[in-house]
Design a protein that fits this description.
The protein is α/β, with parallel strands linked by helices and about 260 residues long. The protein has ten helices and eight strands. It has two domains: about 150 residues, NAD(P)-binding Rossmann-like Domain (Rossmann fold, 3-Layer(aba) Sandwich); about 100 residues, ProC-like, C-terminal domain (N-(1-d-carboxylethyl)-l-norvaline Dehydrogenase, domain 2). The protein is elongated, with a radius of gyration of 22 Å.
Length: about 260
């Protein structure tokens, strides 16, 4: 199986390396940034282009790992090859491919990707959507090379899943960043709360997140909340986050 990667960011990098390790031929990498394209191509031991008109036309699958807004822009500039065309985005409808090609789908790995952090794809859920049953079978077979956590999910479900993931991952990580800023100001190492973070994440494997919620906002401990808000008076943006989250948690649990 020959694959072309359209994109050279973190998703393209991790996905390309994982597929290559399973014997898939990464035929070519495209990026508008030639340095990025060359860097990823070197890792994948393949060729690269920065002009879409030089696209290899005989691959089996074209994987578009791009910014959400870039898919249709790049499709309009291409001579669309035969083969299956898939994107990796959480919020982009599959039907954005309609009018450009007949065989298309979504190959969405539900994970957070950073260039410097390795990923074990065997633990990554792969969400698949396809324009027809034949294409779906090909994408499922490709996913099976990486993981047994394969889900057939339509565009509406995937949109809701991506929204949930933003709360569970991106916003949660920002909370870690806020915590790190607070600790740094007091010359306390972030590592001291790592066991707390680990236990919080582990706890929801056995408890519903609602039942796992603790803290002053659940019991509406006004003295503690007011003390914390006073501590944050020189950080008005973070103070707003604290206040909003505390009120939201309290409203969720006030009839508990």
């Amino acid at each position: 199986m020959e694959i072309v990667l359209i994109g050279s960011g973190s998703v393209a990098t991790h996905l390309g390396l994982a597929l290559k390790s399973k014997g898939v031929i990464i035929k070519q990498v495209f990026s508008r940034n030639p340095a990025n394209a060359e860097n990823l191509a070197r890792k994948l031991e393949t060729t690269f282009i920065d002009d879409i008109s030089d696209l290899y036309m005989d691959a089996d699958i074209y994987i578009y790992a791009l910014k959400d807004s870039a898919l249709k822009t790049i499709l309009r500039k291409m001579n669309i090859p035969r083969g299956i065309h898939v994107h990796t985005a959480g919020s982009v409808p599959m039907n954005d491919f309609e009018g450009f090609t007949a065989q298309f789908g979504v190959f969405y790995p539900l994970q957070t990707f950073s260039i410097k952090k390795e990923i074990d794809f065997s633990k990554v859920p792969m969400c698949i959507e396809a324009s027809n049953a034949e294409t779906q079978m090909v994408l499922v077979d490709l996913a099976k090379l990486l993981t047994d956590k394969i889900y057939i999910i339509n565009s509406e479900q995937r949109k809701q899943l991506h929204l949930a993931a933003v709360f569970a991952c991106n916003f949660t990580n920002y909370m870690y960043d806020i915590a790190a800023q607070i600790l740094e100001k007091s010359d306390v190492k972030f590592e001291i709360i790592e066991p707390l973070i680990a236990e919080t994440a582990d706890k929801i494997k056995s408890l519903n997140p609602y039942d796992a919620q603790t803290g002053p906002a659940v019991r509406f401990d006004e003295n503690t909340i007011d003390r914390h808000l006073h501590m944050l008076k020189k950080n008005p943006d973070i103070k707003k986050v604290y206040d909003l989250l505390s009120k939201s948690i309290h409203l969720r649990h006030k009839n508990q």
